[in-house]
Amino acid sequence: MSISPDTRSSDLTWGAFTENGPWNVDRADLAWSSGIDELRRRARADVPILTKAGRIPPGSRVVTVGRHIVGALGGWYVAKKRGRFADQSASRAELSLRLRRAVETLGPTYIKLGQIISSGEGLFPSELVDQFKLCRDRVPAEPFSTVRLTVESDLGARLGDIFEWFDETPLAAASIAQVHAARLRTGEDVVVKVQRPDVASLVRRDLRVMSYIAPHLVGRIPVAALANPPALVELFAETIVEELDFRLEASNMIDVAATLRDLGQEGYVIPRPHPRLVTRRVLVMERLSGFNFDDVVGMKDAGIDTENVIRTGMIAFMEGAMIHGIFHGDLHGGNLFVLPDGRTALLDFGIVARLSHERRLAFLRLMLSATTNDMTGQMAALRDLGALPPDTDLAAVISDLRLDQATIDPTSLTGEEMVAEVQRVVKALLGYGARLPKELMLYVKNMVFLDGAISRLAPELDILGEVANISMLFAQRHGERLGRELGVDPNAVEFDMTGVKASLGLEDDVNRITYRELQARRDLIQKRMREHVGR
After folding, report:
1. pLDDT (0 to 100) of residue 7
2. Residue 243 in contact with residue 266, Cβ under 8 Å?
3. Is residue 207 within 8 Å of residue 233, measured between CB atoms?
4. Measuring CA to CA, which residue among 183, 179, 322, 331 is closest to residue 263?
5. What is the 8-class DSSP label of residue 426?
6. Which helix (H) or strand (E) holds 194?
7. Where are the alpha helices (DSSP H) in 107-228?
8. Which pLDDT score is estimated for 6?
9. Which distant-in-sequence residues (6+ apart) come within 8 Å of 112 by Cβ?
10. How far is CA 265 from CA 137, 188, 260, 407, in A?
11. Does the model's pTM come out above 0.85?
12. CA-CA 20 to 30 A from 201: which of 22, 99, 111, 266?
């Protein structure tokens, strides 16, 4: 059932793979790819059905979920009423702890939700993020007997007929699946991703339960990021339904590899999915190895330019979104590592954002408007991306958010003034019906991850300088195409960093700032806000 390794590397003409692959991937000869588009369409069509809030509780599971969630909220509420928290931060920390414990008790679906929240630093409260990070490595592995049964059932052969050896101890165990190292009988080292039994039906059942409970939580969870639980459930459903079919993940790997190669992006590699050994619940892929993304010392000792690793990531990520409308939607330290030659291996393609043609153009307009300081253009692009209702009065939004006024350095404000400003902006946005579409949420979440990666790998990087350089690079590489698609003259576009500086809270006369300096400003702002809230 395996592929002969004699014919290698011809897939490098179209895909971002390693030079000496264990097999050649022919896109016209992938046994598992038949009907992929229809599988993806069906998965997406399930979302509105699974997230429709019913009037009748969906079975006994809702009682179990409700008991744990209500128990978490109730215990926190009683402690708060008794004055057990020194300040609001302590209150949020206790609530986050209780929610995390409830999530772990409720199983894979809720753990997956926690894992997604855990990689949303900056989008969700820090207390919640810190607690849910613990969900990443606290998922018990399935017994090997269960793994064997799934693999043999899906691949239609005994384990020993396909693999020379198969490590019974998983490399990692997550909420949806776990991965094992193995070697095919023809000698290729591989990684085998195996879905947990019955997780697909459990996720669908839990999504119905979440959709029933979510409306009842509106206004009852005092965590700003969870102010709209139904919207969060919808976003979660959109990200998880495609993860339940590994044929879709393998297809994502092929598409992202082709995108990177088309863009001439040499800094990333994708593991090859096996042309035959992929099913709904089993994914066999090429095994790669390298430095953990947090192993800065190891990379530098090996002579790897960590600033270039970050720069490559920023460019590849943005190019994929703007030029092809596709990008990896779940960047975090466990989903990528750095090869000894400095290239980055990208893993786990269960969550991949795919922008429609219309939304890709809106995203392009958003990026162009940001670098030319066109505020009306940015608001129009956000509207077209689905972040604002179609009939939104853009001029009113700009006025209400004071985006047409001079930037105020947030470090010059008191904690009380900063809290008031945040509350004013949030209230205004909610008043206009603002929401965070899936693709935009994934993009922002990835940018937050890259932001944190800069702090470890390239703290002295000049942020403004990099933005300017990347903007010029895009103009040189894609100016003609972008101009044609957006209906503008690329030669007439003038970059204006005023808007970029404003988004970072910088006044227009600031022309250089390292990440370390930017983070010091952020820490000061957060400190003042915490001190005010804790009074």
Report:
1. 47
2. no
3. yes
4. 322
5. H
6. strand 189-195
7. 108-118, 126-133, 144-155, 159-162, 199-217
8. 46
9. 174, 175, 176, 203, 240
10. 32, 26, 5, 36
11. yes
12. 99
